């Protein structure tokens, strides 16, 4: 990469991409036409400046790497506790927990059952645990929604996703028809 003065810039190492900075703007002359020292604003410095003065950065993962974690799980009757769950029903859950925005987003799909309820529970594999988040029931086989939650719940899912599970209920299986651990 070339700096404002035409020479290669690299923070570390040699060659293309070895710690190079990407200028967003360079300033070379005063309005009178006299030369001024070149000033390069990099993406990193612009983001740090924006954070320092309190500009909202939305879901910018660059600031602290804390924007949500996403988990995918299969939902099956064999995982239900206490069982038995529905051996013929299946589903999927995509769960994104974000402790920065205090949200948990869930995309659910189901096949082979008529759901009556869906939840996220706290409980390790093989353990029936308490409901921590009621979910939109996938009445037509699908639901997708983001929920505002306490920071502790989002952070707990990120810290230990295997301690949480998604399950879907139907009339024949009021304690749960299909289940999947969020963390695998």
Q: What's the assembly state of these chains?
A: single chain
Strands side by side in the biggest sheet: 3-4-5-8
Counting structural domains, the number is 2
What order do the SSEs take from the amino end to the carboxyl end, as H and E? EEHEEEEEEHEE
The low-confidence runs, each spanning 5 or more residues with pLDDT under 50, are 1-31, 34-66
Biggest sheet: strands, sense, closure? 4 strands, antiparallel
The shape is globular
Radius of gyration, CA atoms, in whole angstroms: 25 Å
User: DSSP helix count?
Assistant: 2
Taken as a percent bin, the fraction of beta residues is 35-45%
Question: How many strand elements?
Answer: 10
Q: What is the residue-averaged pLDDT? A: 76
Class inferred from helices and paired strands = mainly beta
Account of the 3D structure:
The structure is a single chain. By secondary structure, the protein is mostly beta strands. It has 2 domains: 1-63, no CATH class; 69-181. Helix content is 10%, strand content 42%. It contains 2 helices and 10 strands. The chain has helices spanning 43-52, 151-159, and strands at residues 23-29, 35-42, 69-76, 90-98, 103-111, 115-122, 131-135, 142-148, 164-170, 173-181. The strands form 3 sheets. Strands 3-4-5-8 form a 4-stranded antiparallel sheet, with helices on one face. A 4-stranded antiparallel sheet has the order 7-6-9-10, with no helix packed on it. A hairpin with an 8-residue loop joins strand 6 and strand 7 (131-135). It is globular, with a radius of gyration of 25 Å.
């Amino acid at each position: 990469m070339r700096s404002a003065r035409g020479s290669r810039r690299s923070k570390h190492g040699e060659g293309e991409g070895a710690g190079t900075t990407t200028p967003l703007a360079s300033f070379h002359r005063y309005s009178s036409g006299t030369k001024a020292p070149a000033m390069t604003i990099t993406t990193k410095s612009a983001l740090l400046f924006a954070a320092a003065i309190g500009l909202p950065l939305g879901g910018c993962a660059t600031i602290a790497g804390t924007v949500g974690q996403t988990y995918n799980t299969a939902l099956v009757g064999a995982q239900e506790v206490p069982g038995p769950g529905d051996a013929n029903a299946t589903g999927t859950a995509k769960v994104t927990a974000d402790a920065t925005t205090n949200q948990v987003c869930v995309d659910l799909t189901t096949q082979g059952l008529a759901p009556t309820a869906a939840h996220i529970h706290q409980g390790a594999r093989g353990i029936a645990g308490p409901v921590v988040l009621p979910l939109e029931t996938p009445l037509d086989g699908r639901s997708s929604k983001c929920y505002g939650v306490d920071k502790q719940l989002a952070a707990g899912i990120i810290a230990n996703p295997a301690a949480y599970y998604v399950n879907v209920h139907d009339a024949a299986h009021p304690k749960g028809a299909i289940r999947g651990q969020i963390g695998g």
